[in-house]
Each structure stands twice: as C-alpha cells, then as structure tokens.
Fold this sequence. Notes:
- Chain A is of the alpha+beta class.
- Chain A has helices spanning 56-69, 86-101, and strands spanning 2-9, 20-23, 31-37, 43-50, 75-81.
- A five-stranded mixed sheet of chain A has the order 1-4-5-3-2, covered by helices on one side.
- Chain B has one domain: 2-enoyl-CoA Hydratase, Chain A, domain 1 (Alpha-Beta Complex), CATH 3.90.226.
- Chain B has helices at 18-25, 87-103, 121-140, 158-165, 182-189, 199-206, 208-213, 225-237, 244-261, 267-273, 287-293, and strands spanning 32-34, 59-66, 69-76, 107-111, 145-149, 155-156, 168-172, 177-178, 219-221.
- Chain B is globular.
Amino acid sequence: xxxxxxxxxxPRSASGTRTQAIVGVVASGNLEVLLxxxxxxxxxxxxxxxxxxxxxxxxxxxxxxxxxxRSAGGLHISVNDGGARPDTVALxxxxxxxxxxxxER
Amino acid sequence: MTQVAxxxxxxxxxxxxxxxxxxxxxxxxxxAEFIGPAxxxxxxxxxxxxxxxxxxxxxxxxxxxxDGTPVLIAAQEGRFMGGAxxxxxxxxxxxxxxxxSALKQDLLILFDTGGVRLQEANAGELAIxxxxxxxxxxxxxxxxxxxxxxxxxxxxxxxxxxxxTCSRLIISEQGRLxxxxxxxxxxxRGIEEFDSRDRALVWRTMGGKHRYLLGGTDVFVDDExxxxxxxxxxxxxxxxxxxxxxxEAEQARLERRLQRFGEAEDAIEIxxxxxxxxxxxxxxxxxxxxxxAANDRENADDAR
Lengths: 105, 304
C-alpha cells in the first residue's frame, strides 16, 4: 500500500454544518472518500492509501486541481483507493464536497 | 426550455450501495450509525496482505425507524471484497444482534455477501458461528430478525447459513441464496456438474424465484427499494416462533422435500413436479404473473 499526504491552502471553504460525510466504496476501479470538518477554514489535508504504487505525480495533480476548483477549506479528507482512474477520483472528491455541504435534516 | 418529468421509479436494490439501501429503506432521515467510518474500525488483517481497507469494513450498522417502529439495521456492501465476513465486519453484526436481544428491538439484515473473507478465514468462520448463535438468542428473546436478499454478491457461504436462522427472508429475482457459489461448485465438481458461466443455470438453481418456489424464502419482491421496504414492514408484523417443535417440523418438511425432488436433474423438473403449467417460462415471468404461477409452491414455515 502506498500512502500519500497533502496539506494545501484552500481558496474557498466548505459551506454547511455537517461534520462528516462519506462517498464511494473500495472496489476495483473505485474508491471511498471520507470527509471530516476539523481544520482551519483555509486548509485542506488529503491522506491517500492506494494499492497502485508509483502514481504520486498523478495524485498530486488531481488533488491540487480539486482544491483549486472546489470549496475544500476546513476539510480533512481520507481516501482508500481500489485503483480508481483520475477522473473517478475527481468525481468522488466533488461528490464528497456536495455531500458534506448538504443541509442537515 | 422543456420541463423534465420527475422520475418516480423506485431505484434498483441490486444497483444501490449499502448506504443507499438503508437510506431508502427506513423512514426519511431516521437512520443513525453505530461505529461509523470516522472511527476507522478497520480490519486488522488486510494490511498484512497489502490489501485496501474500508473504514466501515464493508458493513453499516445502526438504528432507524421503519413506518414509525424503531428497528436495528445492518447492511453489507457487496462491492467491498464481495461483502465477505471478516473479524470486524462480523463483530459489528454480532454486537447489533446482542443489542436487539437486550433492547427487544427487531433487526433487519441486508445481506450482500459471498461468505467468509478468506484472508481472515478463522476469524470470519468464528464470526459466522457467533452471529448464528446471536440470531437464535434474539429470536428466543422474541425479536424478529428479517433478512433481505437482492444484492449483486447474492447471499452465499456463511451468509446463507445466517440467512437460514432468520425469522423471515425477503428475496428479489436478482437475489441468489446458496451455501456454495457457482464457481465453488465448478471448481470442486467439474464443469460437467455446474457451468458457472451459464447465467440461466445459476439463476434457476440459486436465484430468488427458485428459492421462493422451494419454500427457502418467505416473500418475493421486485428489485425496487420501495418493494423491499413494504415487505420489511409486513415481515415485522408477523411474529415467528423459534422452538424445538418448529425445528422438528422443518426437519420433516426438508425430508419430504428431498423425497419429492431428490431425483430432479434441473430446477425446471422441480417446477413441473410442483404443478406449474409452463415451467420453462418461469424465468421470464414478471412478478405478478410469477406469483400467480407460484400458488402451489413449497410452503415456507416458521423455520423454513
């Protein structure tokens, strides 16, 4: 298992009040993304565990693009990867933001 | 701009994830999870094999309300390691069943499993035994334990043994229920005995329709989350006994069933013996027509 960690300055913070959200499952070509709101609102950290070794450069590009484009500030994000493609990763990260920003019932 | 018509089709149970199934099954917004993913109660074994972990170890447990009634719920995620039982996965279900006994609250198990996770085989096998004991103890305490089967992994191996101890089983056509899976049979007995790639054979041997016709399950529903919800609400209303008399009656029924169908080479022969007019058409029948044709099925009793 390769472990990667990123700590990035986030231009926008996640809205809403939910403290956590989870999307996806760990399956072939898929991943789970756990989001926890417990950081300063301008920081986003992302911890990744992936079975596919040697793709650190691709992960770096995907998470930087994600933090630049989505409202990821304040979130500690944990990823368990089952060998997902970069577009699937970007989709799950975006779904995670949407879920943690949903109004609470 | 044209207005897009609202889609009011109930989502597929087969396609949904464990969390989506729970959300659609219980009263809106009523579910609360025990030992959620943020607690990271993950398998202690998978890292040894350098295999990916999942924060909930492939099972979601918690409590919610079903048509206003408080219930406990466990849902397996069939896409994570085939929904298989490992040490933590099993312990979460055992704990929930013990809570059901203590709280006198009914419990729903949303099966989606290939059986025991082979990477943690001993712990998984022990978990199956503990869960079966906990199901029986809950039923002896007067609690309903209802199994719902309709996921992509089916309900195989140790999962099928647990299902056999439930007070009621609800199944869809997509659901499969069997101790040994198609590939296990083919590996052990040869392709002449069972061709695991023959989808029609798999479904007429282990699929929901056949299990319902043989009295192996109690309720047959469409592959829709709302159909499962309505069947689960009904299932909780029917109290089911669990005592020696019930088990002895079931043993006698199974002996009769073996006598009646033991020589059959294929499920279609069984359906013919049941008196179904056009047995070869069973796999193609929509639910309402199937249920009419299934009028003379083997009856499921309190032990099945």
